[in-house]
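Lecture 7, part B: from sequences to assemblies.

Below are the input chains for today's worked example.
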Amino acid sequence: MAEALEAAERLCARRGARLTEIRRRVLELVWRSHQPVGAYTILERLGRERGRVAPPTVYRALDFLIAHGLVHRIASLNAYIGCAHPDRDHIGQFLVCSGCGSAAELDDRRIDRAIRSGAEAAGFAVERPVIELAGRCPNCRERGRDART
Amino acid sequence: MAEALEAAERLCARRGARLTEIRRRVLELVWRSHQPVGAYTILERLGRERGRVAPPTVYRALDFLIAHGLVHRIASLNAYIGCAHPDRDHIGQFLVCSGCGSAAELDDRRIDRAIRSGAEAAGFAVERPVIELAGRCPNCRERGRDART
DNA sequence: CCATGCAATGTTATAGTGTAACATCCGCGA
DNA sequence: TCGCGGATGTTACACTATAACATTGCATGG
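Predicted structure of the full complex, as C-alpha coordinates:
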Protein backbone atom coordinates (compact mmCIF):
# COMPACT_ATOMS: atom_id res chain seq x y z
CA MET A 1 0.00 0.00 0.00
CA ALA A 2 2.83 2.41 0.80
CA GLU A 3 4.04 1.17 -2.53
CA ALA A 4 0.77 2.09 -4.17
CA LEU A 5 1.04 5.59 -2.77
CA GLU A 6 4.54 6.01 -4.10
CA ALA A 7 3.46 4.72 -7.47
CA ALA A 8 0.67 7.29 -7.41
CA GLU A 9 3.13 10.06 -6.58
CA ARG A 10 5.34 9.06 -9.46
CA LEU A 11 2.48 8.73 -11.88
CA CYS A 12 1.10 12.14 -11.01
CA ALA A 13 4.50 13.75 -11.17
CA ARG A 14 5.06 12.28 -14.59
CA ARG A 15 1.73 13.62 -15.80
CA GLY A 16 1.94 16.98 -14.13
CA ALA A 17 -1.15 16.16 -12.08
CA ARG A 18 -1.33 17.46 -8.55
CA LEU A 19 -1.71 14.81 -5.90
CA THR A 20 -2.77 17.24 -3.21
CA GLU A 21 -3.04 16.52 0.48
CA ILE A 22 -6.72 15.69 0.31
CA ARG A 23 -6.40 13.50 -2.76
CA ARG A 24 -3.50 11.67 -1.26
CA ARG A 25 -5.38 11.20 1.98
CA VAL A 26 -8.44 9.85 0.20
CA LEU A 27 -6.31 7.47 -1.80
CA GLU A 28 -4.72 6.29 1.42
CA LEU A 29 -8.11 5.71 3.03
CA VAL A 30 -9.29 3.77 0.01
CA TRP A 31 -6.26 1.54 0.22
CA ARG A 32 -6.41 1.18 3.97
CA SER A 33 -9.81 -0.41 3.74
CA HIS A 34 -9.19 -3.86 2.40
CA GLN A 35 -12.61 -3.90 0.90
CA PRO A 36 -14.37 -1.61 -1.52
CA VAL A 37 -15.30 1.44 0.51
CA GLY A 38 -18.22 3.84 0.18
CA ALA A 39 -17.79 7.55 -0.37
CA TYR A 40 -19.55 8.38 2.87
CA THR A 41 -17.31 6.07 4.84
CA ILE A 42 -14.35 7.95 3.44
CA LEU A 43 -16.16 11.14 4.26
CA GLU A 44 -16.56 10.14 7.86
CA ARG A 45 -12.97 8.98 8.28
CA LEU A 46 -11.62 12.07 6.62
CA GLY A 47 -13.83 14.12 8.90
CA ARG A 48 -12.20 12.59 11.96
CA GLU A 49 -8.91 14.12 10.93
CA ARG A 50 -9.97 17.45 9.52
CA GLY A 51 -13.23 18.38 11.16
CA ARG A 52 -16.27 18.88 9.03
CA VAL A 53 -15.84 17.69 5.46
CA ALA A 54 -18.64 17.93 2.89
CA PRO A 55 -19.49 15.32 0.24
CA PRO A 56 -18.16 17.26 -2.74
CA THR A 57 -14.71 17.23 -1.20
CA VAL A 58 -14.63 13.47 -1.25
CA TYR A 59 -16.33 13.05 -4.59
CA ARG A 60 -13.96 15.49 -6.22
CA ALA A 61 -10.98 13.65 -4.88
CA LEU A 62 -12.43 10.37 -6.06
CA ASP A 63 -13.13 11.81 -9.51
CA PHE A 64 -9.52 12.85 -9.77
CA LEU A 65 -8.22 9.50 -8.64
CA ILE A 66 -10.51 7.65 -10.99
CA ALA A 67 -9.58 9.87 -13.91
CA HIS A 68 -5.96 8.95 -13.34
CA GLY A 69 -6.72 5.26 -12.93
CA LEU A 70 -5.63 5.20 -9.31
CA VAL A 71 -9.02 4.12 -8.07
CA HIS A 72 -11.88 2.18 -9.60
CA ARG A 73 -15.54 2.54 -8.90
CA ILE A 74 -17.58 -0.61 -8.42
CA ALA A 75 -21.02 0.30 -9.65
CA SER A 76 -22.82 -2.69 -8.25
CA LEU A 77 -21.66 -1.73 -4.76
CA ASN A 78 -21.51 2.04 -5.04
CA ALA A 79 -18.03 1.69 -3.67
CA TYR A 80 -14.44 2.45 -4.52
CA ILE A 81 -11.27 0.41 -4.54
CA GLY A 82 -7.61 1.11 -5.17
CA CYS A 83 -6.11 0.03 -8.46
CA ALA A 84 -3.12 -2.22 -8.14
CA HIS A 85 -1.49 -1.20 -11.43
CA PRO A 86 -2.54 2.25 -12.52
CA ASP A 87 0.22 2.38 -15.10
CA ARG A 88 -1.08 -0.02 -17.66
CA ASP A 89 -4.26 0.84 -19.37
CA HIS A 90 -6.49 -1.03 -17.02
CA ILE A 91 -9.84 -2.43 -17.97
CA GLY A 92 -10.95 -3.35 -14.52
CA GLN A 93 -12.60 -6.68 -13.95
CA PHE A 94 -13.59 -7.37 -10.39
CA LEU A 95 -14.25 -10.42 -8.32
CA VAL A 96 -16.56 -9.34 -5.54
CA CYS A 97 -17.02 -11.82 -2.73
CA SER A 98 -20.48 -11.91 -1.25
CA GLY A 99 -19.11 -13.80 1.75
CA CYS A 100 -16.49 -11.44 3.11
CA GLY A 101 -17.13 -8.36 1.02
CA SER A 102 -13.63 -8.26 -0.38
CA ALA A 103 -12.88 -7.55 -4.01
CA ALA A 104 -9.97 -8.48 -6.24
CA GLU A 105 -9.02 -7.11 -9.60
CA LEU A 106 -8.66 -9.60 -12.41
CA ASP A 107 -7.70 -8.02 -15.77
CA ASP A 108 -7.86 -11.13 -17.88
CA ARG A 109 -7.07 -10.50 -21.53
CA ARG A 110 -9.14 -13.43 -22.67
CA ILE A 111 -12.21 -11.94 -21.05
CA ASP A 112 -11.49 -8.59 -22.57
CA ARG A 113 -11.08 -10.11 -26.01
CA ALA A 114 -14.22 -12.21 -25.70
CA ILE A 115 -16.18 -9.14 -24.71
CA ARG A 116 -14.89 -6.91 -27.45
CA SER A 117 -15.33 -9.49 -30.14
CA GLY A 118 -18.79 -10.45 -28.92
CA ALA A 119 -19.84 -6.81 -28.88
CA GLU A 120 -18.21 -6.12 -32.22
CA ALA A 121 -20.18 -8.96 -33.74
CA ALA A 122 -23.26 -6.98 -32.78
CA GLY A 123 -21.79 -3.86 -34.36
CA PHE A 124 -21.17 -2.35 -30.97
CA ALA A 125 -17.96 -0.53 -30.00
CA VAL A 126 -17.14 -1.00 -26.34
CA GLU A 127 -15.64 1.99 -24.59
CA ARG A 128 -15.99 1.41 -20.88
CA PRO A 129 -16.71 -2.17 -19.89
CA VAL A 130 -18.15 -2.77 -16.43
CA ILE A 131 -17.27 -6.27 -15.29
CA GLU A 132 -18.16 -7.05 -11.70
CA LEU A 133 -18.44 -10.69 -10.79
CA ALA A 134 -20.26 -11.37 -7.58
CA GLY A 135 -19.47 -14.74 -6.10
CA ARG A 136 -17.28 -16.55 -3.59
CA CYS A 137 -13.62 -16.02 -2.97
CA PRO A 138 -11.41 -19.05 -2.26
CA ASN A 139 -11.50 -18.45 1.49
CA CYS A 140 -15.23 -18.16 1.81
CA ARG A 141 -15.76 -21.07 -0.53
CA GLU A 142 -13.74 -23.32 1.66
CA ARG A 143 -15.41 -22.25 4.85
CA GLY A 144 -18.85 -22.52 3.31
CA ARG A 145 -19.59 -19.21 4.91
CA ASP A 146 -22.93 -17.55 4.54
CA ALA A 147 -23.47 -14.06 3.30
CA ARG A 148 -21.39 -11.33 4.83
CA THR A 149 -22.07 -10.98 8.53
CA MET B 1 -43.76 -6.36 -26.16
CA ALA B 2 -47.31 -7.70 -25.97
CA GLU B 3 -45.53 -10.94 -26.58
CA ALA B 4 -43.22 -10.34 -23.65
CA LEU B 5 -46.22 -9.75 -21.42
CA GLU B 6 -47.83 -12.96 -22.50
CA ALA B 7 -44.62 -14.83 -21.95
CA ALA B 8 -44.52 -13.34 -18.46
CA GLU B 9 -48.08 -14.47 -17.78
CA ARG B 10 -47.26 -17.98 -18.86
CA LEU B 11 -44.06 -18.10 -16.90
CA CYS B 12 -45.73 -16.91 -13.71
CA ALA B 13 -48.65 -19.29 -14.17
CA ARG B 14 -46.25 -22.16 -14.58
CA ARG B 15 -44.42 -21.22 -11.41
CA GLY B 16 -47.44 -20.38 -9.35
CA ALA B 17 -46.22 -16.80 -9.01
CA ARG B 18 -48.78 -14.03 -8.97
CA LEU B 19 -48.39 -11.47 -11.69
CA THR B 20 -50.68 -8.95 -10.04
CA GLU B 21 -52.08 -5.81 -11.59
CA ILE B 22 -49.27 -3.61 -10.27
CA ARG B 23 -46.52 -5.99 -11.24
CA ARG B 24 -47.95 -6.40 -14.67
CA ARG B 25 -48.28 -2.67 -15.06
CA VAL B 26 -44.70 -2.06 -13.97
CA LEU B 27 -43.47 -4.70 -16.39
CA GLU B 28 -45.44 -3.00 -19.13
CA LEU B 29 -43.94 0.38 -18.31
CA VAL B 30 -40.46 -1.08 -18.32
CA TRP B 31 -41.06 -2.53 -21.75
CA ARG B 32 -42.75 0.54 -23.08
CA SER B 33 -39.64 2.61 -22.49
CA HIS B 34 -37.25 1.54 -25.16
CA GLN B 35 -34.37 2.43 -22.96
CA PRO B 36 -33.41 1.36 -19.48
CA VAL B 37 -35.75 3.22 -17.17
CA GLY B 38 -35.24 4.48 -13.63
CA ALA B 39 -37.42 3.42 -10.72
CA TYR B 40 -38.60 6.96 -10.12
CA THR B 41 -39.62 7.36 -13.73
CA ILE B 42 -41.75 4.28 -13.38
CA LEU B 43 -43.04 5.71 -10.14
CA GLU B 44 -44.13 8.89 -11.83
CA ARG B 45 -45.80 7.15 -14.76
CA LEU B 46 -47.56 4.72 -12.51
CA GLY B 47 -48.69 7.65 -10.41
CA ARG B 48 -50.39 9.22 -13.41
CA GLU B 49 -52.70 6.25 -13.62
CA ARG B 50 -53.30 5.46 -9.99
CA GLY B 51 -52.83 8.65 -8.06
CA ARG B 52 -50.17 8.77 -5.41
CA VAL B 53 -47.79 5.81 -5.47
CA ALA B 54 -44.91 5.45 -3.03
CA PRO B 55 -41.43 4.15 -3.86
CA PRO B 56 -41.79 0.79 -2.09
CA THR B 57 -44.64 -0.10 -4.41
CA VAL B 58 -42.39 0.20 -7.42
CA TYR B 59 -39.35 -1.37 -5.83
CA ARG B 60 -41.34 -4.32 -4.64
CA ALA B 61 -42.74 -4.91 -8.08
CA LEU B 62 -39.26 -4.62 -9.57
CA ASP B 63 -37.88 -7.05 -6.99
CA PHE B 64 -40.51 -9.56 -7.98
CA LEU B 65 -39.89 -9.12 -11.70
CA ILE B 66 -36.15 -9.39 -11.24
CA ALA B 67 -36.47 -12.47 -9.07
CA HIS B 68 -38.38 -14.13 -11.87
CA GLY B 69 -35.95 -12.98 -14.54
CA LEU B 70 -38.51 -10.79 -16.27
CA VAL B 71 -36.49 -7.65 -15.72
CA HIS B 72 -32.81 -6.93 -15.31
CA ARG B 73 -31.21 -4.18 -13.31
CA ILE B 74 -28.38 -2.26 -14.90
CA ALA B 75 -26.23 -1.21 -11.99
CA SER B 76 -24.10 1.30 -13.85
CA LEU B 77 -27.24 3.24 -14.76
CA ASN B 78 -29.44 2.55 -11.75
CA ALA B 79 -32.03 1.53 -14.27
CA TYR B 80 -34.16 -1.40 -15.29
CA ILE B 81 -34.85 -3.13 -18.58
CA GLY B 82 -37.10 -5.93 -19.73
CA CYS B 83 -35.57 -9.33 -20.39
CA ALA B 84 -36.20 -10.67 -23.84
CA HIS B 85 -36.04 -14.34 -22.87
CA PRO B 86 -36.86 -14.91 -19.24
CA ASP B 87 -37.20 -18.64 -19.80
CA ARG B 88 -33.63 -19.63 -20.29
CA ASP B 89 -31.32 -19.13 -17.41
CA HIS B 90 -30.19 -15.70 -18.39
CA ILE B 91 -26.83 -14.29 -17.52
CA GLY B 92 -27.44 -10.78 -18.68
CA GLN B 93 -24.76 -9.00 -20.65
CA PHE B 94 -25.67 -5.54 -21.76
CA LEU B 95 -24.53 -3.20 -24.47
CA VAL B 96 -25.29 0.28 -23.23
CA CYS B 97 -25.03 3.03 -25.82
CA SER B 98 -23.73 6.33 -24.52
CA GLY B 99 -24.98 8.05 -27.65
CA CYS B 100 -28.69 7.27 -27.59
CA GLY B 101 -29.07 5.70 -24.16
CA SER B 102 -30.44 2.45 -25.50
CA ALA B 103 -29.38 -0.93 -24.20
CA ALA B 104 -29.34 -4.35 -25.81
CA GLU B 105 -28.95 -7.71 -24.19
CA LEU B 106 -26.18 -9.88 -25.51
CA ASP B 107 -25.89 -13.25 -23.74
CA ASP B 108 -22.79 -14.51 -25.49
CA ARG B 109 -21.70 -17.93 -24.31
CA ARG B 110 -18.10 -17.28 -25.18
CA ILE B 111 -18.04 -14.29 -22.86
CA ASP B 112 -19.68 -16.27 -20.12
CA ARG B 113 -17.17 -19.08 -20.50
CA ALA B 114 -14.21 -16.71 -20.56
CA ILE B 115 -15.45 -15.06 -17.40
CA ARG B 116 -16.12 -18.21 -15.49
CA SER B 117 -12.87 -19.82 -16.45
CA GLY B 118 -10.88 -16.67 -15.74
CA ALA B 119 -12.48 -16.37 -12.33
CA GLU B 120 -12.10 -20.06 -11.62
CA ALA B 121 -8.40 -19.79 -12.34
CA ALA B 122 -8.29 -17.37 -9.43
CA GLY B 123 -10.22 -19.82 -7.26
CA PHE B 124 -13.30 -17.67 -7.46
CA ALA B 125 -16.81 -19.03 -8.04
CA VAL B 126 -18.96 -16.59 -9.96
CA GLU B 127 -22.58 -16.41 -8.94
CA ARG B 128 -24.01 -13.21 -10.34
CA PRO B 129 -21.91 -11.63 -13.07
CA VAL B 130 -22.52 -7.98 -13.85
CA ILE B 131 -21.53 -7.27 -17.44
CA GLU B 132 -22.43 -3.82 -18.69
CA LEU B 133 -20.56 -2.57 -21.70
CA ALA B 134 -20.80 1.15 -22.26
CA GLY B 135 -20.00 2.19 -25.80
CA ARG B 136 -21.56 2.99 -29.14
CA CYS B 137 -24.38 1.21 -30.88
CA PRO B 138 -24.23 0.75 -34.67
CA ASN B 139 -26.54 3.69 -35.29
CA CYS B 140 -24.69 6.19 -33.17
CA ARG B 141 -21.37 4.96 -34.46
CA GLU B 142 -22.36 5.68 -37.99
CA ARG B 143 -23.71 9.09 -37.24
CA GLY B 144 -20.73 9.98 -35.11
CA ARG B 145 -23.14 11.36 -32.60
CA ASP B 146 -21.98 12.94 -29.39
CA ALA B 147 -23.07 11.91 -25.97
CA ARG B 148 -26.78 11.66 -25.38
CA THR B 149 -28.43 15.03 -25.68
C1' DC C 1 6.18 43.18 -5.65
C1' DC C 2 1.65 43.01 -7.32
C1' DA C 3 -2.05 41.66 -10.40
C1' DT C 4 -4.44 38.15 -12.32
C1' DG C 5 -5.96 33.94 -13.69
C1' DC C 6 -6.81 29.18 -12.93
C1' DA C 7 -7.06 25.04 -10.27
C1' DA C 8 -8.45 23.37 -5.83
C1' DT C 9 -11.24 23.57 -2.00
C1' DG C 10 -15.13 25.24 1.00
C1' DT C 11 -20.13 25.69 1.69
C1' DT C 12 -24.97 25.18 1.22
C1' DA C 13 -28.53 23.13 -0.58
C1' DT C 14 -30.82 19.69 -3.07
C1' DA C 15 -31.46 15.85 -6.41
C1' DG C 16 -31.70 10.97 -7.06
C1' DT C 17 -31.90 6.11 -5.41
C1' DG C 18 -33.40 2.72 -2.20
C1' DT C 19 -35.21 0.57 2.27
C1' DA C 20 -37.10 -0.08 7.21
C1' DA C 21 -40.96 -0.58 9.78
C1' DC C 22 -45.45 -0.99 10.60
C1' DA C 23 -50.51 -0.79 9.12
C1' DT C 24 -54.01 -2.60 6.21
C1' DC C 25 -56.26 -5.40 2.93
C1' DC C 26 -57.66 -9.53 0.66
C1' DG C 27 -58.22 -14.20 -0.72
C1' DC C 28 -58.06 -18.92 0.68
C1' DG C 29 -58.13 -22.99 3.28
C1' DA C 30 -59.04 -25.16 8.00
C1' DT D 1 -65.94 -17.70 10.37
C1' DC D 2 -61.32 -17.41 11.70
C1' DG D 3 -56.83 -17.03 10.95
C1' DC D 4 -52.91 -16.98 8.02
C1' DG D 5 -49.81 -15.39 4.58
C1' DG D 6 -48.84 -12.69 0.68
C1' DA D 7 -49.57 -8.20 -1.39
C1' DT D 8 -50.11 -3.44 -0.94
C1' DG D 9 -50.41 1.17 1.51
C1' DT D 10 -48.04 4.71 4.23
C1' DT D 11 -44.63 7.22 6.60
C1' DA D 12 -40.36 8.21 7.38
C1' DC D 13 -35.71 7.95 6.58
C1' DA D 14 -30.93 6.31 4.91
C1' DC D 15 -27.67 6.45 1.51
C1' DT D 16 -25.44 8.19 -2.83
C1' DA D 17 -24.26 12.01 -5.66
C1' DT D 18 -24.20 16.68 -7.78
C1' DA D 19 -25.35 21.80 -8.73
C1' DA D 20 -24.09 26.25 -7.88
C1' DC D 21 -21.61 29.66 -6.06
C1' DA D 22 -17.90 31.55 -2.72
C1' DT D 23 -13.25 31.44 -1.30
C1' DT D 24 -8.48 30.28 -1.18
C1' DG D 25 -4.02 29.70 -2.80
C1' DC D 26 -0.45 29.34 -5.92
C1' DA D 27 2.15 30.02 -10.30
C1' DT D 28 3.29 33.29 -13.61
C1' DG D 29 3.98 37.39 -16.21
C1' DG D 30 4.09 42.41 -15.93
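Note for the exam: Chain A has a mean pLDDT of 93. Keep this in mind when comparing with the next example.
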